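Quick one:
INPUT:
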C-alpha cells in the first residue's frame, strides 16, 4: 500500500543540496523549495532513506519525512495552503 509523505530537507552545502534534489526527483513531486510530496511503498521509503543517508552530512543536514497517510483517502486531501492554491499533480499512465 502506498503512503503519502511530505519530505523536507535543509542541506547546508550547495553541492550536497543539488545531489539531494536530484535524488528526490525520482521519488515525488517538487512542490516548494526543498519540499517534495511522495507516494511511496514501504520498500521505496526505505530505499529513498538509504540513498539520502549516503548523500547528507548527518551533523550538518536534516531530512524530515512526514507520513500524511494512505494515498487512497486522507493522504490525497490532507494538504492545504494559504495564498496560491496547492494543485495536486495530475497522474498519467506511462506504457513502456
Amino acid at each position: 500500500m502506498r503512503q503519502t509523505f511530505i519530505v523536507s530537507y535543509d542541506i547546508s552545502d550547495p553541492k550536497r543540496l543539488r545531489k539531494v534534489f536530484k535524488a528526490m526527483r525520482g521519488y515525488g513531486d517538487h512542490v516548494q523549495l526543498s519540499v517534495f510530496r511522495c507516494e511511496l511503498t514501504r520498500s521505496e521509503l526505505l530505499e529513498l532513506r538509504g540513498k539520502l543517508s549516503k548523500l547528507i552530512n548527518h551533523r550538518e543536514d536534516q531530512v524530515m519525512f512526514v507520513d500524511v497517510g494512505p494515498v487512497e483517502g486522507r493522504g490525497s486531501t490532507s494538504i492545504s495552503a494559504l495564498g496560491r492554491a496547492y494543485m495536486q499533480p495530475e497522474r498519467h499512465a506511462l506504457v513502456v
